Amino acid sequence: MRTSNYLIATQKETPADAEVVSHQLMLRAGLIRKLAAGLYTWLPLGLRVLRKVERIVRQEMDRTGAQEVSMPVVQPAELWEESGRWEQYGPELLRIQDRHQRDFCLGPTHEEVITALVRDEIKSYKQLPVNLYQIQTKVRDEIRPRFGIMRSREFLMKDAYSFHVDQASLEETYQCMFDAYSAIFSRLDLEFRPVIADTGSIGGSGSHEFHVLAESGEDAIAFSDGSDYAANVEMAEALAPTEPRPAPGAQMQRVATPGVTSIDALAEFLSIEPRQSLKTLVVNGDEGGSLVALVLRGDHQLNNIKAEKLPGVAAPLQMADEGKVRSACGAGFGSLGPVGLAIPVYVDRAAAQLADFACGGNEDGWHLTGVNWDRDCPPGETADLREVVAGDPSPDGSGRLQIKRGIEVGHIFQLGTKYSAAMGAQVLDENGKNITVTMGCYGIGVSRIVAAAIEQNHDERGIAWPQAMAPFQLAIVPLNMQKSEAVAACAEELYGKLLDAGVDVLLDDRNERPGVKFADMELIGIPHRIVIGDRALAENNIEYKGRRDEDSQLVPRDDILDFLLSRLG
RNA sequence: CGGUGUGUAGCGCAGCCUGGUAGCGCACUUCCUUCGGGAGGAAGGGGUCGGAGGUUCAAAUCCUCUCACACCGACCA
């Protein structure tokens, strides 16, 4: 490709509304342009990157024996009503009507469509297992699109769905997908980790997320420093303290605390550490109007996922209305505590371990100090409620947890029969009896990978693509090409030979000054660059520089082709 | 959805407080010079100032409504 007739839409200035590096660089390097909130046009250069990622994903999926299909983006409401998700999915499901006022949605995912397909097409256990996938635009009307392509309302996703006669077959394919995902992210040269993930309302054991590690990641991941345990923090169990609870050492006292409604304020008021106090959160119960109290140590944070799985607690988790709390507990937020509380109480394991603690007095403006479980109030039911923190013991018993941030780029999931049962996807088994098929689903955020790769691979001059996803592998930068016949001839000759060798090469034949060309090629992130100029050419040399190299090196003109081909692999 | 903030040329911004017919840098077009790290000069093109309504002789500027976008929050006891 020649830059003279290629859309190089680079910008010197960073658009004001781009927050994270990948978003800024994607705009500056001319990979994408915003159309509306969370909606982006892919420019030629960006699309090349996207296609390269897509190609690797497709190759690895095909290698596992999965078969590619293509399903409609527009899906009829009836299918979603069958699965129950027309009601359940919420406003993220972008709903539309056709000219006959029939309801449709734009697919955020394709479980319904694929299950309907398999229900109609697959009748015998002999046809299973089967794994079908597509690489297609998904639509989710996100509450808050963010970070450019990272959380957008339209995005490119690889989604695969497997169908099985039993759990054992599902687990086999699941492992196969796990391995394929690892191969994909390795080929893309990304630093990633598979982590144990939440299975949501579906339950079951099998779900992993694949995270690319990056500071700007929206998810927190907990790792053990003593084993290969890794989990999304929302899933990481906070183990019960091993030491027994200390014996009570203080008397319970009622203390006036006017205006003190937060743990920090309480700790300061009483001159204690937050970890010596309790916070009491009230959430909606699963029966109309019921409330449940959740008690945590003052310095700990509630884990919503853990909380909403507790019996009696409404899912999704919802904080109770303050008015209802006041009438049920006698005080508003900020003055609540477990002593004398008339609603069901769950106590976090760490909170249950405290003695002589401070907590709200269930009376506005009053707290209690020197409180002890059993003696002063019933210990309620103990549960794991809190978010793990760095330094906690690893749930697998070896090592301590570290917390890092990650960008979720893949998710694999053992679905079981949630959709097949709801939609009646059955096959005949070897005894001629109908059985409901067991399903797995496997997603990769193809467009998100592009942003994640930039988060991991950039410097002050721009993007530094991993080789496998660079829009072009090599840039040829001829200097003063319009005047110097020697430079032009050499550049054209090399360009032709590299094209013949199958290299993705970009010839910068614009009539621009050298600085402009260098800056553009670096911003765009092309991994390899050669410069052809009269000066070096007079010595029969050509200059080479890798995108991450400090300095350039001279290579004899006769050797340059071999030199480059060996570098490019 | 709540809070905060921003909408003026493709991008980045000034002008608004104190109303008087719109400006700067980059980018773009033409010409000359320059040509190894985002060149210099000259001459140009491009904006109904997000939209609607109001006040006024006069509105980018003041008032009302509205739309869009961004960031923060939705973990608070």
Q: Could you describe the 3D structure shown?
A:
The protein is globular. 41% of the residues are buried. Strands 3, 7, 8, 9, 10, 11, 12, 20 and 23 form a nine-stranded mixed sheet that branches. The protein has a five-stranded mixed sheet with strand order 27-26-28-29-30, sandwiched between helices. The protein has a four-stranded mixed sheet with strand order 14-15-16-19. It is of the alpha+beta class. It starts with 20 loop residues before the first helix and ends with a helix. 27% of the residues lie in helices and 28% in strands. The chain binds one RNA strand of 77 nucleotides through residues 10-17, 19, 27, 34, 36-37, 143-144, 146, 261-263, 279-282, 301-304, 319, 322, 325, 331-336, 360, 387, 479-480, 483, 512-520, 522, 531, 533, 535, 543.
Brief write-up:
By secondary structure, this protein is of the alpha+beta class. The chain is 27% helix and 28% strand.
Helices and strands in order:
Elements: H1 21-28, E1 32-36, E2 39-42, H2 44-63, E3 67-68, E4 74-76, H3 77-83, H4 85-88, E5 94-97, E6 103-106, H5 111-121, E7 130-139, E8 154-164, H6 167-187, E9 192-196, E10 207-213, E11 219-224, E12 230-232, E13 253-256, H7 263-270, E14 278-284, E15 291-297, H8 304-308, H9 322-329, E16 345-348, H10 349-352, E17 357-363, E18 366-371, E19 381-383, E20 401-416, H11 418-423, E21 426-428, E22 434-436, E23 438-445, H12 446-456, E24 458-459, E25 462-463, E26 474-478, H13 485-500, E27 505-507, H14 514-524, E28 528-532, H15 534-537, E29 541-546, E30 553-556, H16 560-568
Parallel strand pairs: 3-7, 15-16, 16-19, 26-27, 26-28
Antiparallel strand pairs: 1-2, 4-6, 5-6, 7-8, 8-23, 9-10, 10-20, 11-12, 11-20, 13-18, 14-15, 17-18, 20-23, 21-22, 24-25, 28-29, 29-30
Helix pairs in contact: 1-12, 2-6, 2-12
The structure holds one RNA strand of 77 nucleotides.
